[in-house]
Each structure stands twice: as structure tokens, then as C-alpha cells.
Design brief:
- This protein has helices at 2-7, 12-33, 39-76.
- The protein is mainly alpha-helical.
- The model has no long low-confidence stretch (mean pLDDT 87).
Length: 77
């Protein structure tokens, strides 16, 4: 138990700063491992994003087309 107490921050300031410094170290480690995507990787990501936008747009359009007449039937009925 004494060893665990030695690791714990003694002050309120230490309790606030400890998670911040831990997060900063983890973030720095992540950024150092990241690499810039190559042109083929970037192209593949861009194409997947465009396909996703198109699919979501088409789904929204179909839902709107279906629910406009349904809404009119409900309001007029």
C-alpha cells in the first residue's frame, strides 16, 4: 500500500496535471507513429468517401420521395 501511495499525486494540482501530461505523452507517441498517406492510399480513401456521400444522398432522396406522399395522405386524410 505504501508503494501505491507514493505513485499517487499528493496535491489537487498533481491530480489535475497528471492526466493531462499522460494524455500529451500518448498523443505525441501516436503522432510519431502516423505516416502521411501515399497517393494510391489517398485516392482510395477519397473514392470511398465520395461513394459514401453518394449512397447517403441517394438514401435520403428515396426516403424523402417516399414520405412526401405519405405525409400528404396523413395530413389530408
Amino acid at each position: 500500500m505504501a508503494a501505491n501511495r507514493a505513485r499517487e499525486p499528493e496535491t489537487l494540482l498533481g491530480q489535475v496535471i497528471s492526466p493531462i501530461t499522460s494524455f500529451a505523452k500518448d498523443s505525441e507517441r501516436l503522432l510519431n507513429r502516423c505516416t502521411k498517406p501515399t497517393a494510391p492510399e489517398y485516392r482510395k480513401i477519397a473514392i470511398a468517401t465520395v461513394i459514401g456521400f453518394l449512397l447517403m444522398g441517394m438514401i435520403g432522396f428515396v426516403v424523402k420521395l417516399v414520405f412526401i406522399p405519405v405525409n400528404n395522405l396523413i395530413l389530408l386524410g
